[in-house]
Design a protein that fits this description.
The chain has helices at about 10-20, 60-75, 95-100, 110-120; strands at about 25, 35-40, 50-55, 80, 90, 105-110. It is α+β, with helices and mostly antiparallel strands and about 130 residues long. A hairpin with a 5-residue loop joins strand 4 (about 80) and strand 5.
Length: about 130
């Protein structure tokens, strides 16, 4: 296998496809990245889909956009924010504030860390009855 080079763009594409299996991801001739997801519409005619398209200049930007979409789907009561410095935040939206279980905000360095923090933030707590049992 000497002399064979690994194409970094192919590696990035493979990682994107693995991380976001419900998206069809391609690299366009101009070097930008494109993703399409077809979601069947519940209660609609067979073969009726909602098609979502995303385009980004870099693989990293596409990955961040798709990761944010994943988090928004998984945690619909939260607004997901990625800062221009790459830090991730979540704040409860109106439905989340109405549930009164959510903290005011959570933050993390990566989408996976934010997912863990959100699960912790919405985990129900056991009622405290003022007694300690051993």
């Amino acid at each position: 296998m000497t002399g064979q080079r690994t194409d970094p763009q192919r590696i990035k594409a493979a990682r994107l496809i693995e991380a976001h299996p419900d998206w069809c991801i391609t690299r366009l001739p101009d070097g930008s990245w494109h993703a399409v997801r077809r979601t069947p519409l519940a209660g609609a005619l067979l073969g009726t889909y909602l098609e979502t398209e995303v385009t980004a200049d870099t693989a990293d930007a596409l990955d961040a956009t798709l990761a944010a979409d994943q988090l928004r789907t998984e945690f619909p009561d939260w607004e997901i924010i990625r800062t221009d410095r790459g830090h991730w935040w979540a704040v409860p939206n109106e439905a989340g504030r109405a549930s009164k279980r959510a903290r005011s905000s959570v933050d993390a360095d990566t989408p996976d860390e934010l997912r863990v923090a959100l699960r912790e933030a919405i985990r129900p707590t056991a009622p405290h009855h003022g007694r300690c049992t051993r």
